Amino acid sequence: MLYLGPVSIGRGAWDVVVLLNGAWRILCGQVPNMDYHSPLGPLTFLLVALGMKAAGPSAAAIPIGIVFLAGCLLPWAWNIASSRFPPVLAFVYVLFSGLLLIAPRPLGTDIRETSYAEFYNREGDVLIALIFVLVFLPRLARAGKKPISDGVSIGILLALIFYCKATYFVVAFATVLLGTALPWRCWKKHLSVALGFTGVCLTTRFMFHIPFFSYLHDIGTSGHVQAMTTRMQFLKYGASQNLPWIYFIFVSLLLWTYVDYASGSTLWSSAGLWLTAGWIIGAAVGLGAGNSGGVAENPLILMGGLIPLEQFRRRNQEQIKVASGLARLAYLAALMIILPHFCFKTLVTDAEAFAYASAWNLVKRPSFDASRTLHAGPLRDLRVRDGLTSIGPYWYTRDFPSKLNDGLDLLRKHLRAGDQVTTLGYTDPFSFAFGLKPCRDANSWWDLNMDFNRSYFPAPKEFLGSATLVMIPIYDLSYRAAAHETLDVMMGLYKDYLQQNFELVDASQAWMLYRRRSQSSGRGPNL
Description:
Layout: H1 13-27, H2 42-55, H3 61-82, H4 87-102, H5 119-136, H6 147-162, H7 166-179, H8 187-208, H9 212-225, H10 228-241, H11 243-262, H12 271-292, H13 300-315, H14 317-320, H15 326-363, H16 400-414, E1 421-423, H17 430-434, H18 460-464, E2 469-473, H19 482-501, E3 502-507, E4 511-516
Helix pairs in contact: 1-2, 2-3, 3-4, 3-5, 4-5, 4-15, 5-6, 5-7, 6-7, 6-8, 7-12, 10-12, 11-13, 11-15, 12-13, 13-15
């Protein structure tokens, strides 16, 4: 990944700009959730900011941040998995997690739709899967009991999830609470969880100055404006999309329950397997609905089959050794159901997406159409391919380079020393593109009913108070997208303040440029 550089963008170009914008703010000294607001946790932005520290402002900062996270998480994941799964399953699980973390495509999309959009969801999936393993599977006897080590691991993972995405944290925290009722509970482990979580939070506060309660406020704001009816629609859609996979796990649970019944055990003896599977699958569907609208490719459902499978193996170790035994047949049948259908499907697709992105970078990047290169140094390695048919927030994805270049050229003509620019729209690509000091402009990205709505929104002075320039996109009228409504609502909320304090100084095919009235007279030096 580091050698090849950033992948070509086949989907979600604006989502990639959100990552670059958030990281650039941090690099310029802004504090997440205090100097700007976002319902998305600061962890992902911090990783990209780390990449910018290493390689300078460019799209290459994103894969650098991903590689850094993978380098930290995967050895840790192996340490956790190898002490709880048989070696082969531990290897498959860590391989699955590694590809899940680095594959450059949003889940549920084609391998050619390469992008870093929604990387934070993949990040959250890997982190919370480790929580599931730690909570529901005690260490194998050969690994020894290490309650303090396990507790610290859970605490650190909880904190990382907290700073990744709030929805994942709610599920992870509830899972840990459920774990306190399991037979392997231990007060040393619980204390270690608290110490691990508190340690990461304090480190984050002192290293990056991120106020704990300011972040909670942003999370609360997001929860306040999000429509519950929309979430329920996503939940129903996500459940229906994953119904075949849930059915396969249900069949496996019936097999395991039948083994218990045939061996003379009561049906209640299998209740733990059903509880574990039900909890993880419910969490997977709920998180899928809350974070991606519900897609048929949900990697967490794998854990709803893999962890109960290991629980069943431990309970029936002696019977499974019998070659023709019922327990062995049930174990192998479940293994053949769970690995190919849940693990290998996503694993192979992620591997194919990574291979496609690598081949494109090696073969086609050198001959990339120069007219599609963005007209700003930090954005030159952000390559959006031609021929794409997907729609973006304002224009078709294939038109992203020409439309953004239109805005870059427009803004460049009017920039003065000390200018601060913001965008009345999805996010601000211009401060990063021109190396400008970012505005204190409320939200780092704007999405109706996700971080603001018609009744709950930042005050005009909080949004436009430090801006000297405001860029407003002119969206494509040939289709209607959610971002069009977002822009229309923003114009309705801030139009009066904009007209009172700014004046239109220029416009292009795709953008309008406003300058603060107090600075509209007299041209300063162009940058």
